[in-house]
Design a protein that fits this description.
- The complex is a heterodimer of chains A (about 120) and B (about 120).
- Chain A is mainly beta.
- Helices cover about 0% and strands about 55% of the residues of chain A.
- In chain A, the strands form 2 sheets. In chain A, strands 2, 4, 5, 6, 9, 10 and 11 form a 7-stranded mixed sheet that branches. In chain A, strands 1-3-8-7 form a 4-stranded antiparallel sheet, with no helix packed on it.
- In chain A, a hairpin with a 5-residue loop joins strand 4 and strand 5.
- With about 120 residues, chain B is mostly beta strands.
- Chain B contains no helices and 11 strands.
- In chain B, a hairpin with a 6-residue loop joins strand 4 and strand 5.
- Classes of the chains: A mainly beta (about 120), B mainly beta (about 120).
Chain lengths: ~120, ~120
């Protein structure tokens, strides 16, 4: 199957700082990528849809000024958690949508811990 | 409002037997369904999918059945292997418009296959 990478896999930061997470589709182009968040023992919660060349669309309840998304190219989307707080600590997962398909391939996830 | 539900939090099966994971949905607009396998601290891995125009799709040991009238789908794994032990998520999406590619996940079912 298609490969999606995320970097970093794990990050610890202090409250008030910003953290950038990268999501790359390695062997295919993706005009659409998605960012999810998973709380412990919970399902994946869609945060936003990242569209190449246009603004991201956010799900209800997700602060767009806090979670900045940039889809700079057909293979790269970034999520920046700004002014991080301990409650932002979570497992963040991205996915990339195969063109003209419903199939999504997920990255390995990024564990964010805010101290 | 949980539009995709996996009512069994866990399932335990003997190696070699069949594993049946169930999923129900409430939104009749969903027309494409996917199953993902997930290990802790990793992103979901795509397993198999089915379009609403079909009632069955098979790929190796994995078969997905869709009953549109009952808004129910199931994933059959046969024969089950210890390496199949993981959390299984079903997901649903609807074609076109602003929802294209957006997945709604169930809560997940923990499958344990005993040797």
């Amino acid at each position: 199957g298609a490969v999606v990478s995320q970097h970093p896999s794990r990050v610890i930061c202090k409250s008030g700082t910003s953290v950038k997470i990268e999501c790359r589709s390695l062997d295919f182009q993706a005009t659409t990528m998605f960012w999810y968040r998973q709380f412990p023992k919970k399902s994946l919660m869609l945060m936003a849809t990242s569209n190449e060349g246009s603004k991201a669309t956010y799900e209800q309840g997700v602060e767009k000024d806090k979670f900045l998304i940039n889809h700079a190219s057909l293979t790269l989307s970034t999520l920046t958690v700004t002014s991080a707080h301990p409650e932002d600590s979570s497992f963040y997962i991205c996915s990339a949508l195969v063109l003209s398909s419903y199939e999504q391939y997920f990255g390995p996830g990024t564990r964010l811990t805010v101290t | 409002d949980q539009q995709v539900k996996q009512n069994s939090p866990s399932l335990s099966v003997q190696e070699g037997r069949i594993s049946i994971l169930n999923c129900d949905y409430t939104n009749s607009m969903f027309d494409y369904f996917l199953w993902y396998k997930k290990y802790p601290a990793e992103g979901p891995t795509f397993l198999i999918s089915i379009s609403s125009i079909k009632d069955k799709n098979e790929d190796g040991r994995f078969t997905v059945f869709l009953n549109k009238s009952a808004k129910h789908l199931s994933l059959h794994i046969v024969p089950s292997q210890p390496g199949d032990s993981a959390v299984y998520f079903c997901a649903a999406t609807k074609a076109g418009g602003t929802s294209y590619g957006k997945l709604t996940f169930g809560q997940g079912t923990i499958l344990t296959v005993h040797p």
